[in-house]
Amino acid sequence: MALSGKWGAVRGVAAASVTPLASILGSGLLIIVPILERALGSFAIFGALGICAFAWLVGTVIRHNVTAIEQGTAGGTLNATTARLDRLGDAVIVIAYIISVPLYLRISPVRS
Prior knowledge:
- The protein is mainly α.
- The protein has helices at residues 5-40, 44-75, 80-107.
- The protein is built from three helices and no strands.
- It starts with a helix and ends in a 5-residue tail after the last helix.
- The relative contact order is 0.09.
């Protein structure tokens, strides 16, 4: 059953805002495996393990930010450099979404 009216529009906006991130991650995985195989040959598994280790480290940074930095942001206790980096990160995410959401809407099939 297709949603129409207000709820159909809300669902479309939600899909347009969430799907680009999943699409970017999925596309990255689809692209990196053949690149690793071509570049590293039989050692591609070590490249994949390296990428997984890197992703784990990035996740560690994100978890630290959620637990420590966000408390400082909310309390206004961050030093100037960290606060500037936090604002820069916000700006980068906004720019990435400004690019990826219209791109996804352009390439996704129209559903009625």
